[in-house]
Recover the amino acids of this structure.
C-alpha cells in the first residue's frame, strides 16, 4: 500500500478543539477513511495552523481525495513518499 | 454451542432490522472451511419472529446443476432467464424475509448471476439476503469475485477462527491440553469438535485424520452406510436404492453423530467430513458405489448428477449420454462454466468416437469457455476441432471454426493471428455456395476492420455481409455488420445516421449485446466530437440499458467513456469515480484501456502521482494493435510528459504517423496541435476541426473561445498557454488555477516570468472554486435531489450512478457544507436557492 504526503492549506487556520467534539471529529475522519481503505498515520501542523503535512497510507491518490472530500478537508498536493531515517545508510552499509 | 460470535450476531441483527425497515441488502459471511458459518446463520435464524426464513445451499459435491438453490427455495428455474430472476425477486421481497444461501463459492454461474441481479435490486425491499462462502478458496479469477467487488465493507462479516480462550470454552469438561489443541487446530471450530469427539489416544494431525479416527470407531455395517453416503450424498431414497431399504448401520451413524438428519435425508455434519470419508474409500469399492448410484438414479432428471456418477463408475457410454445433455441444460440456464466442465467430462471419455462427433464436442466446449472468458481453453479446443474438421474434409465447418478462432484470438489480444484467421475463413468459405457461415465471416471482417480503423475495409466488408444476409432472407444477420459500418462512419466523421439505424434494428430484433455496442459507438463518437449533450444522452441511456440487463462488460466500457467526458470538461471527481469503478472491477479487460488513459491524464492534469505506471499497463494491453489505434494513448503520454516539463520526450511519444493519414479527424487535429506544442515542425494535416486550425494558425485566443463555448475549459487554458501575449498567458494561468490544475498553471507561470511579467501567483490558491461551498457540479445535482427528499437509491436511479456512488456524494456534501445530516444539507440548499432568486 503506497504512502503519501498530503499538503493542505486552511485559509482560516485549522481548528480542532481539545474537547470531546474534537475527539469525535478526529474519529469520524478515521471512520470515513477506513471505508475507502485509507489510513491516517499522523500530521504536522505549522505554528499559525494554516498548513498541514499529513502522512497517509492508501491505495491511490483518488482514494485520498475522496476521503478528504468526505471529511471536508482541502488537498493542495499529494506526493508519494518512503520512510528514510538517519540510520538507514548506516545499517545498509 | 456458539463461541466468540456475539459481535457477528449483533451485526446480523442490525442488518436485519435495517432491511425490515425498508433498506434491503446483501450481506456476505466469509471464512475458512469449518469456521462455523453454518452454525452462525442457524443460530441467527433460530430466534427470529415474524420474519419468513428461506434456506438454500450450493453443493460442492460435484458439478452442480444450474440454479440448484432455486429448487431449495421452491421456485422454478424454467423459462427465459430475466423472467426467472424477476419472479425470484418478487417471491423473496413480498414480505419481510431472511434468505440464506450457503457456500456460494460453489455456486454455478447462473446462480451467481442471480445473486448479482438480486443484490442490485433489494434497495427498497424488506429482505435480507445472506450469502456464506469460503474466503480461503477464491483464486484471483474466481467468478464469485465479481459479486464480492460490489459488496461494501460494511456488509461483509468475516469469521475468524477461535482464540485460545474460545477453544478452552469449547473444550470445557474434557481433559485435553487446551493450548496443544489450539496449536493443532489453529482455532478451527470444526476441527476442534472433531478432535474432542474422537477422544481416545493419539492426536490427529489434520481434520481428515480426526474424522477418520471417529469413523474407525464404527462397526463394519455402519462403515458401509457411511461410505455410501459419502459418495451418494444426502438423498435418503437414493441411499436406500443403493444399500437396500432401511439399511442397517444407519442408526449407528446417526447416533455416533457422523451423520445427521436434514431435509429429506441424511448428511454429514460438514462437507469436510464427507470429503475425508470419500477419499479413504477403497478405489474399487468407490467405482462400485458410483455404478450402483447410477442405476438407482436412472429415472431421475438430474443430468448433472447422473453425469457425475457415470464418470465415477467409469461408464463411458453413460457419460456420453448424460454429460452433453447436462451441458446443454446448464447452458440454457446460463450456467456456462458448468456447461464447459460437462463438455470437458464428455471429452475425457470420447476415445473411439468418430472425429466429427469429437469435433462438435470440442466446438461446444470452446463456445462455453469463450463465454466465460476462459480464452486459453477456448482457443485450444477450437484449434483441435479445426484439425479434426480439416482431416475429415469438412470445408464448411473448417471455415466457420476459422472465424471463431479469429474472435477468440482477438479477445486474447493476439491481433495478428486474429486478422490472419479472419481472412482465411473468408477464403475457405468463398469456395462453397454462399450461406449463413459466409455472411457471418463477412460480418466478422467488418468488425475487425472497424477495430483497426480501416474505414474502407469496414464499409466494404460490412456491405457485403448485409447484402448476403438480405439475399439469404436472414435479416437479423445484417444487424451486427450495420453497427460495424455505422461505427466506422461515425469515427470518420460521416455522421451517425447508419449507426442510429443499426441501434433501432438492434432494439427491435438484435441481441442485447448488439444494442449496447451501438450505444457505445454513438457515445464515444459524440465524446470525440466534444458534443456534450449528445454524448451524455447516449452514454447515460446506454449505461442504464446495460445496468438493467447486468451486461457488466458493456456497462464498464461506457463508464470509461463517461469518465473521458468528465476529464474533457474538467470535472475531476466524476472522472475519477467512473474510471475507478472500471478499474476496480475484476473482469473489465477490454474497458481497461480507456479507463487507464483517463485516470493517467487526470492524475497528470491535477498534479497527482502515478500517471506513468498506468500508461505502462496501457502499453502492454495495446501491443499489436493497429498503429492508428495507438495514437490516442500516444497523445496522453505526450501530454503527461509535457506537463512534467519534458518537452523533448513529449515530441518523441507522439510518434511519426502523419496527421493527414488518420481516419479520425479529431485525433488528427490533436496530434498536429501537440506536435506544434512540443516544438515539432509544421505538417500538412488535411482538413481538421476548427479549434485545431485556429491554434495552428497562431490564433490562440480564438481557439480558446471555441473550446470555452463548447464546454472544454482545460483545452481553452492549454491553447491560451501557447501564446506569447502576456494578457493571454495571464488568462490561461487563471483558468488552470480555477480548474485545480497546478502543473498547467506552473508551466504558464514560468513562461510569464520569462517574459518579465510581475505579480504571478506561485502556487495553487487556497481552495477557491467556482462554487462557494466547493461542491462539484455533480454534488450540486445531488444536493438538489436531496432537497426534494429523495433517498440515495432514488438519487442513484435519477443520475444513472450506483447507490454506493450516490452515498459517497452525499457524504462528501455533508463534509463540505459542514452539516451532520441530509436534512440539514437540504435546508441549506433551500436557503441558497432563496438567496439566488432575483428580487
Amino acid at each position: 500500500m503506497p504512502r503519501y504526503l498530503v499538503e493542505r492549506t486552511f485559509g482560516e487556520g485549522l481548528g480542532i478543539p481539545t474537547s470531546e467534539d474534537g475527539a469525535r471529529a478526529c474519529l469520524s475522519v478515521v471512520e470515513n477513511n477506513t471505508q475507502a481503505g485509507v489510513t491516517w498515520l499522523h500530521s504536522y501542523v505549522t505554528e499559525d495552523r494554516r498548513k498541514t503535512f499529513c502522512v497517509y497510507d492508501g491505495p491511490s491518490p483518488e482514494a485520498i481525495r475522496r476521503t478528504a472530500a468526505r471529511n471536508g478537508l482541502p488537498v493542495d498536493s499529494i506526493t508519494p513518499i518512503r520512510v528514510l531515517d538517519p540510520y538507514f545508510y548506516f545499517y545498509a552499509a | 454451542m456458539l463461541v466468540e460470535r456475539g459481535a457477528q450476531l449483533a451485526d446480523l441483527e442490525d442488518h436485519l432490522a435495517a432491511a425490515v425497515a425498508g433498506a434491503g441488502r446483501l450481506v456476505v459471511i466469509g471464512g475458512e472451511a469449518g469456521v462455523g458459518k453454518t452454525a452462525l446463520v442457524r443460530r441467527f435464524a433460530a430466534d427470529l419472529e415474524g420474519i419468513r426464513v428461506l434456506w438454500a445451499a450450493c453443493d460442492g459435491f460435484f458439478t452442480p446443476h444450474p440454479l440448484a438453490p432455486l429448487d431449495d427455495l421452491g421456485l422454478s428455474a424454467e423459462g427465459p432467464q430475466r423472467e426467472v430472476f424477476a419472479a425470484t425477486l418478487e417471491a423473496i421481497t413480498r414480505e419481510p424475509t431472511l434468505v440464506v444461501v450457503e457456500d456460494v463459492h460453489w455456486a454455478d454461474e447462473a446462480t451467481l448471476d442471480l445473486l448479482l441481479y438480486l443484490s442490485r435490486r433489494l434497495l427498497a425491499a424488506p429482505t435480507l439476503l445472506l450469502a456464506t462462502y469460503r474466503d480461503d478458496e477464491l483464486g484471483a479469477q474466481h467468478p464469485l469475485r465479481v459479486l464480492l467487488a460490489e459488496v461494501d465493507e460494511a456488509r461483509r462479516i468475516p469469521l475468524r477462527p477461535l482464540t485460545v480462550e474460545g477453544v478452552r470454552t469449547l473444550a470445557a469438561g474434557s481433559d485435553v491440553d487446551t493450548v496443544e489443541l489450539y496449536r493443532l487446530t489453529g482455532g478451527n471450530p470444526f476441527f476442534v469438535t472433531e478432535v474432542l469427539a474422537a477422544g481416545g489416544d493419539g492426536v490427529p494431525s489434520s481434520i481428515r485424520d480426526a474424522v477418520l479416527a471417529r469413523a474407525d470407531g464404527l462397526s463394519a455395517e455402519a462403515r458401509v452406510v457411511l461410505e455410501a453416503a459419502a459418495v451418494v450424498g444426502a438423498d435418503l431414497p437414493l441411499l436406500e436404492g443403493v444399500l437396500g431399504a432401511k439399511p442397517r448401520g444407519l442408526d449407528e451413524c446417526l447416533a455416533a453423530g457422523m451423520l445427521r438428519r436434514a431435509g429429506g435425508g441424511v448428511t454429514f455434519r460438514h462437507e469436510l467430513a464427507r470429503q475425508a470419508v470419500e477419499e479413504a474409500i477403497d478405489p474399487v469399492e468407490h467405482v462400485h458405489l458410483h455404478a450402483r448410484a447410477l442405476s438407482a438414479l436412472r429415472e431421475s432428471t438430474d443430468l448433472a448428477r447422473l453425469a457425475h456418477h457415470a464418470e465415477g463408475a467409469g461408464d463411458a457410454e453413460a457419460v456420453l449420454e448424460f454429460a452433453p445433455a447436462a451441458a446443454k441444460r446448464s447452458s440454457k440456464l446460463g450456467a456456462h462454466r458448468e456447461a464447459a466442465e460437462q463438455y470437458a467430462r464428455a471429452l475425457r471419455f470420447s476415445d473411439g468416437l468418430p472425429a466429427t462427433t469429437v469435433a462438435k464436442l470440442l466446438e461446444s466446449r470452446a463456445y462455453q469457455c469463450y463465454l466465460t472468458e476462459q480464452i486459453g481453453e477456448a482457443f485450444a479446443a477450437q484449434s483441435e476441432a479445426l484439425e479434426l474438421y480439416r482431416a475429415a474434409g469438412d470445408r464448411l465447418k473448417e471455415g466457420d471454426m476459422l472465424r471463431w478462432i479469429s474472435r477468440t484470438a482477438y479477445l486474447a489480444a493476439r491481433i495478428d493471428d486474429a486478422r490472419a484467421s479472419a481472412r482465411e475463413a473468408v477464403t475457405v468459405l468463398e469456395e462453397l455456395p454462399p450461406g449463413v457461415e459466409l455472411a457471418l465471416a463477412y460480418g466478422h471482417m467488418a468488425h475487425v476492420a472497424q477495430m483497426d480503423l480501416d474505414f474502407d475495409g469496414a464499409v466494404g466488408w460490412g456491405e457485403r455481409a448485409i447484402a448476403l444476409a438480405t439475399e439469404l432472407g436472414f435479416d437479423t444477420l445484417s444487424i451486427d455488420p450495420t453497427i460495424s459500418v455505422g461505427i466506422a462512419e461515425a469515427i470518420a466523421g460521416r455522421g451517425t445516421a447508419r449507426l442510429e439505424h443499426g441501434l433501432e434494428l438492434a432494439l427491435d430484433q438484435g441481441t442485447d449485446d448488439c444494442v449496447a455496442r451501438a450505444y457505445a459507438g454513438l457515445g464515444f463518437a459524440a465524446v470525440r466530437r466534444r458534443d456534450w449533450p449528445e454524448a451524455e444522452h447516449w452514454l447515460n441511456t446506454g449505461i442504464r440499458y446495460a445496468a438493467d440487463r447486468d451486461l457488466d462488460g458493456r456497462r464498464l466500457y461506457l463508464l470509461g467513456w463517461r469518465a473521458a467526458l468528465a476529464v474533457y470538461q474538467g470535472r475531476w471527481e466524476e472522472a475519477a469515480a467512473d474510471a475507478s469503478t472500471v478499474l476496480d472491477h475484476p473482469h473489465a479487460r477490454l474497458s481497461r484501456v480507456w479507463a487507464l488513459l483517463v485516470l493517467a491524464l487526470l492524475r497528470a492534469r491535477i498534479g497527482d502521482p502515478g500517471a506513468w505506471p498506468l500508461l505502462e499497463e496501457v502499453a502492454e494491453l495495446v501491443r499489436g494493435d493497429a498503429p492508428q489505434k495507438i495514437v490516442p494513448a500516444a497523445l496522453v503520454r505526450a501530454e503527461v510528459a509535457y506537463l512534467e516539463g519534458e518537452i523533448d520526450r513529449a515530441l518523441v511519444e507522439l510518434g511519426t504517423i502523419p496527421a493527414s493519414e488518420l481516419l479520425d479527424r479529431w485525433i488528427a487535429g490533436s496530434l498536429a496541435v501537440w506536435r506544434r506544442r512540443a516544438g515539432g515542425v509544421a505538417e500538412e494535416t488535411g482538413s481538421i476541426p476548427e479549434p485545431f486550425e485556429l491554434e495552428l494558425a497562431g490564433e490562440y485566443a480564438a481557439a480558446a473561445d471555441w473550446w470555452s463555448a463548447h464546454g472544454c475549459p482545460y483545452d481553452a487554458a492549454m491553447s491560451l498557454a501557447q501564446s506569447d501575449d502576456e494578457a493571454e498567458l495571464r488568462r490561461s494561468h487563471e483558468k488552470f488555477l480555477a480548474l485545480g490544475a497546478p502543473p498547467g498553471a506552473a508551466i504558464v507561470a514560468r513562461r510569464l516570468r520569462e517574459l518579465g511579467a510581475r505579480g504571478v501567483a506561485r502556487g495553487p490558491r487556497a481552495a477557491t472554486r467556482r462554487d462557494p461551498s466547493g461542491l462539484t457540479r455533480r454534488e450540486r445535482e445531488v444536493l438538489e435531489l436531496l432537497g426534494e427528499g429523495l433517498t440515495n437509491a432514488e438519487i442513484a436511479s435519477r443520475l444513472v450512478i450506483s447507490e454506493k456512488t450516490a452515498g459517497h456524494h452525499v457524504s462528501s456534501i455533508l463534509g463540505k457544507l459542514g452539516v451532520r445530516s441530509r436534512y440539514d444539507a437540504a435546508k441549506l440548499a433551500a436557503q441558497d436557492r432563496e438567496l439566488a432568486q432575483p428580487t
Summary: Chain A has three helices and four strands. Chain A touches chain B at residues 4, 9-11, 32, 34-35, 60-62, 65-66, 69-74, 76-80 (CB under 8 Å).
